[in-house]
Design goal:
Elements lengths: L3 E10 L9 E9 L3 E5 L6 H8 L7 E6 L7 H5 L2 E4 L11 H10 L5 H14 L15 H11 L7 E5 L7 H16 L3 E5 L3 H7 L2 E6 L2 E6 L1 H8 L4 H9 L6
Parallel strand pairs: 3-7, 3-8, 5-6, 6-7
Antiparallel strand pairs: 1-2, 1-4, 8-9
Bound molecules: adenosine-5'-triphosphate (ATP).
Protein name: ABC transporter ATP-binding protein
GO molecular function: ATP binding; ATP hydrolysis activity
Keywords: ATP-binding, Nucleotide-binding
């Protein structure tokens, strides 16, 4: 049986005094355990939407409601959310381990529990052997993998990822996607954006396509392909958003 985890209702976002809203009446629902992919051209509003869903930004209008067991206050809810930003969010002059210890200390985890969690996560993404190296010496793929595990230290129930595999080689991409699959099998709900459409086709249960701040499609990929008589996600996006450059 499906269980609603998140309900987004009539969300608008306008930055500063801009005349054009970046989000223009967004409504959708996420069920527990889903993997939702948010797609759309550059500037469509994906990052803005994800930032609002994980409480980094406030909507100008509208509501985002979570249905989490036992967690009621905004602070309790935030403690169950994890966010992997597109831009790296660590200190390059610290080692991987120092970064993880610092970010872990923000979640009030017991020292022994945190140490164990750090080692487990470093192992999972193949960074254990370089845990005492400064992050500034890491390759792009190593930095992306570290950026991911920083957001997993507190075992979030819902994980938001903004382009988690951008700019990485195929090996790092597989390591990242395997870890995300493993987390989802363990019950983590995942909401993510990506421009890697082949990867997303295999990964997502639900597709949310946005353009100019509005949802223009929201369904399973199979249903959308059938409905719009296209063969894949790329064809779907081109059919629904056109070929005009957005910059
Ligand atoms: N901090 C900001 N101040 C003003 N305008 C912003 C800000 N952040 C985003 N915008 C504008 O809001 C709109 C949506 O941007 P957003 O970054 O959410 O799109 P996106 O779909 O994530 O794009 P991309 O695929 O390029 O990452 C764009 O027109 C962008 O210029």
């Amino acid at each position: 049986m499906q269980e609603t985890l998140l309900h987004v209702s009539n969300v608008y976002k306008t930055y500063g005094k801009s005349a054009v809203p970046s989000l223009d009446g967004i409504d959708f629902t996420v069920e527990k355990g889903e993997i939702v992919g948010i797609f759309g051209p550059n500037g469509a509003g994906k990052t803005t939407l994800i930032s609002i869903l994980c409480s980094i930004l406030n909507p100008t209008l509208g509501s985002v409601k979570y249905y989490l067991d036992g967690e009621k206050t905004p602070r309790e809810i935030r403690s169950k959310l994890g966010f992997v930003p597109q831009d790296f969010s660590f200190f390059p002059e610290l080692t991987a381990k120092q970064n993880l210890s610092y970010f872990g200390s923000l979640y009030n985890l017991q020292k022994a529990e945190l140490e164990q969690k750090i080692d487990d996560l470093l192992q999972k993404v193949g960074l254990f052997h370089v845990k005492n190296q400064k992050v500034s010496t890491f390759s792009g793929g190593m930095k992306r993998r570290l950026n991911l595990i920083i957001s997993l230290l507190h075992n979030p129930s819902i994980l938001f990822l903004d382009e988690p595999t951008v700019g990485v080689d195929v090996q790092s991409k597989i390591a990242i996607m395997n870890l995300l699959q493993e987390l989802n099998h363990q019950g983590t709900t995942i909401i993510y954006t990506s421009h890697h459409l082949k990867e997303a086709e295999e990964f997502c249960n639900q597709i949310v396509l946005i353009d100019h701040g509005k949802i223009i499609a929201s369904e399973t990929l199979t249903n959308l392909l059938k409905k719009h008589a296209v063969n894949n996600l790329e064809e779907l996006i081109l059919k629904l958003t056109g070929t005009l450059l957005r910059d």
